């Protein structure tokens, strides 16, 4: 497979065009502290202040172009964000049209806007009207903060003396970086520095990780029954009347590496929640908006939540936008009660954000890209299992749609993880990004117990072709084999 030109690639065309010439990177210079073609920032506070990164100067389709002349296949679309790839003309033109009106920002406390309303209608229709209203925010973390407040106020509206103050979430989960969202999360390493500040009313049950938690030859039905019993027991332990809701990612992304729900799990968890009058809350910030092969991950089994967060693929990286989808049950309590949500942020419901997201969602719907996600995702899974299924250090290959993860182990039989000090996932990511591979891979840790365990994820754009998938799978396999062949 060859990369496309930066100019001639037609919008939404799945055909690969002629390649640009690639200037090979020069060797690392003597005395240099980082690889040729990477730069350390002087003013930006990076996540890793000691690391240098390739400098990207433009993007087109599935490709990123670096300052030093390389062309990188963006197989992760950032963090599963750029679902239409880079430089989509339709989205750029929609943003430009909105900017030409002079209305890019409006205070939602005072004004409405037709573009914003059109986006919300598009989103509700995308749920087959299983949800009723949309609350727009600027990021997934903000959406989770809003969901936490919405769910609490839902019970407060009905009884200001309500005893419902607790949440049940899952171990190995990640719901965002703000204190409320981080408090809901079960990601050990990310929570650690901030434990004194996090909510004390959040309680965790185990994740839905069939690979690591299956007991003997346990069937998926038995596994689901055990998970439902565990959730029910947690309700009983806390007092059912004190629980606001249960929060879960249908497919756990960065925290566990694309660990999907097993059939029947979502329905069983919702049944337990509703048995006790609690809310069933799904976080689809990373796995939703088409990433799993249906617009919403829950649609594959028809298990609509009471509240749902969405983000990343909502705006495809063209604008910072996320949202909470609100069921009629929840909305009616607000409508019949105070009529107000006691929450708000400056940059929410902006027309410029809505214009971008609306065009992204129209493209996904009109071009039936969820179908392509399913088709190419199935092919990606088949190839990964064919190429790496018997590798001694690949413990599990799992995913749905264009959301796939590889978990690495020291021993396949015992599933023993590598020492986290080795940094397996990060080193595999760095190898993939280097020449001659020139491909992004998303690394993660904490897969086994929160502090140890390595995984990488592949989350390509929805516009990928069969040829693209063939290249992605074979490059991934080559990188993995090369890394482990050198010994640790």
Automatic annotation (TrEMBL):
Q: Name one Pfam family in it.
A: Aminotran_3
Q: State whether keyword Lyase applies.
A: no
Cellular component terms (Gene Ontology): cytosol
Q: Which InterPro entries match?
A: Aminotrans_3 (IPR005814), PyrdxlP-dep_Trfase (IPR015424), PyrdxlP-dep_Trfase_major (IPR015421), PyrdxlP-dep_Trfase_small (IPR015422)
Q: Does the keyword Nucleotidyltransferase apply?
A: no
Q: Which UniProt keywords apply?
A: Aminotransferase, Pyridoxal phosphate, Transferase
One function term, GO molecular function aspect:
pyridoxal phosphate binding
User: Cofactor(s) for this protein?
Assistant: pyridoxal 5'-phosphate
Q: Which family does it belong to?
A: Belongs to the class-III pyridoxal-phosphate-dependent aminotransferase family.
Q: Which PANTHER family match?
A: AMINOTRANSFERASE, AMINOTRANSFERASE CLASS-III
Name by which UniProt lists this protein: Aminotransferase
């Amino acid at each position: 497979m060859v990369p496309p030109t930066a100019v001639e690639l037609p919008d939404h065309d799945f055909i690969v065009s002629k390649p640009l010439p690639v200037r090979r990177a020069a060797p690392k210079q003597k005395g240099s502290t980082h690889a040729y073609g990477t730069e350390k920032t002087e003013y930006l506070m990076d996540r890793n202040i000691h690391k240098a990164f390739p400098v990207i100067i433009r993007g087109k389709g599935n490709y990123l172009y670096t300052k030093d002349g390389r062309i990188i296949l963006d197989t992760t679309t950032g963090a599963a964000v750029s679902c239409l790839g880079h430089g989509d003309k339709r989205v750029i033109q929609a943003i430009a049209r909105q900017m030409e009106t002079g209305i890019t920002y409006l205070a939602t406390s005072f004004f409405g806007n037709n573009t914003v309303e059109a986006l919300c209608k598009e989103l509700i229709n995308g749920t087959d009207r299983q949800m009723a209203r949309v609350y727009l925010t600027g990021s997934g973390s903000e959406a989770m903060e809003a969901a936490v407040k919405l769910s609490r106020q839902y019970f407060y509206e009905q009884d200001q003396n309500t005893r419902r103050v607790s949440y049940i979430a899952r171990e190995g989960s990640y719901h965002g970086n703000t204190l409320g969202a981080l408090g809901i999360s079960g990601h050990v390493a990310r929570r650690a520095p901030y434990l004194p500040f996090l909510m004390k009313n959040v309680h965790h049950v185990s994740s839905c990780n069939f690979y690591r938690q299956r007991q003997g030859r346990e069937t998926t039905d038995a596994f689901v029954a055990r998970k439902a019993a565990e959730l029910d027991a947690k309700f009983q332990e806390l007092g059912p009347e004190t629980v606001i809701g249960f929060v879960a990612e249908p497919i756990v992304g960065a925290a566990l590496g694309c660990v999907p729900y097993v059939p029947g799990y979502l329905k069983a968890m919702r049944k337990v929640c509703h048995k006790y009058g609690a809310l069933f809350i799904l976080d689809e910030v990373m796995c939703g908006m088409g990433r799993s092969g249906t617009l919403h991950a829950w649609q594959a089994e028809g298990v609509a939540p009471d509240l749902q967060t969405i983000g990343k693929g909502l705006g495809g990286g063209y604008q910072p936008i996320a949202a909470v989808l609100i069921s009629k049950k929840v909305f009616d309590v607000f409508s019949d009660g105070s009529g107000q949500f006691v929450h708000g942020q400056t940059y929410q419901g902006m027309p410029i954000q809505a214009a971008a997201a609306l065009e992204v969602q129209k493209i996904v719907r009109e071009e039936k890209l969820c179908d392509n996600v399913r088709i190419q995702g199935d092919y990606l899974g088949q190839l990964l299992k064919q190429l790496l299924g018997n590798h001694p250090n690949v413990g599990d290959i799992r995913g749905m749609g264009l959301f796939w993860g590889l978990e690495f182990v020291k021993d396949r039989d015992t599933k023993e993880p590598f020492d986290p000090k080795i940094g397996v996932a990060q080193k595999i990511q760095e190898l993939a990004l280097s020449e001659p591979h020139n491909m992004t891979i998303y690394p993660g840790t904490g897969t086994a117990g929160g502090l140890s365990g390595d995984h990488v994820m592949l989350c390509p754009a929805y516009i990928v072709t069969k040829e693209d998938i063939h290249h992605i799978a074979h490059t991934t396999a080559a990188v993995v084999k090369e890394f482990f062949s050198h010994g640790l």
